Amino acid sequence: MLGRVQVPATVRRGETFEVRVLVQHPMETGFRRDLNGQAIPINIVDRLACRYGGREVFRAELGSGMAANPYMAFHVVARDSGELVVEWSDDRGVISVDWGRCTLRALPGVLTLRAEAPAEDAPRQAEHPSPIASSGPADAITWR
């Protein structure tokens, strides 16, 4: 998932500034059909969060009512100097972070984490399958 984050070039301490986020994502609802009549599986951005100086300043939980390529704008107060990090994830386990993206896939008996990053100083592509054992509810996973 690609995206764009826009903020002002400079902001004074105590000033409110606007953060604009555009996520490039198809936002498929699961109700449409392709040219062959097959249902297009649901695929939506389900979460977007922003941290400023290590503190979460914005969070949104999205649903299928959002259009493709969702756009959001929100305001933040510049209290101190700090890094602004925007992350989003979709219902297929893809998480976009400032250095690239991670995909977590769970299949019977194996959990695979794939990390991709184009930047020189970020981790390069890696994929790590690991056997798992479920010991309780469906959302409880034990790594071996």
Structure report:
The chain has about 140 residues and is an all-beta fold. The protein folds into two domains: about 1-95, Immunoglobulins (Immunoglobulin-like, Sandwich); about 100-144, no CATH class. Helix content is about 0%, strand content about 50%. The protein has no helices and eleven strands. It has strands at about 1-5, 15-25, 45-50, 55-60, 70-75, 85-90, 95, 100-105, 110-115, 125-135, 140-144. It has an eight-stranded antiparallel sheet, with no helix packed on it. A three-stranded antiparallel sheet has the order 1-2-5, with no helix packed on it. A hairpin with a 3-residue loop joins strand 6 and strand 7 (about 95). It starts with a strand and ends with a strand.
List the helices and strands and how they pair.
Blueprint: E1 2-6, E2 16-24, E3 45-52, E4 55-61, E5 71-77, E6 84-90, E7 94-97, E8 100-107, E9 110-116, E10 126-134, E11 141-143
Antiparallel strand pairs: 1-2, 2-5, 3-4, 3-6, 6-7, 7-8, 8-9, 9-10, 10-11
Radius of gyration: 18 Å
Query: Could you name the ranges where pLDDT drops below 50 across 5 or more consecutive residues?
Result: 122-144
Oligomer: single chain
Total number of β-strand segments? 11
Shape: globular
Q: What strand line-up does the widest sheet have?
A: 4-3-6-7-8-9-10-11
Quote the average pLDDT.
76
Q: Specify the structural class.
A: mainly beta
Q: The CATH topology of the largest domain, please?
A: Immunoglobulin-like
Q: What is the CATH superfamily label of the largest domain? A: Immunoglobulins
Element order: H for helix, E for strand = EEEEEEEEEEE
Residues in helix, %: under 10%
Total domain units: 2
Distance between the termini: 30 Å
Please give the count of helices.
0
CATH class wording of the largest domain: Mainly Beta
- Overall CATH architecture of the largest domain: Sandwich
Strand content: over 45%
How many strands, which pairing sense, and closed or not: the largest β-sheet? 8 strands, antiparallel
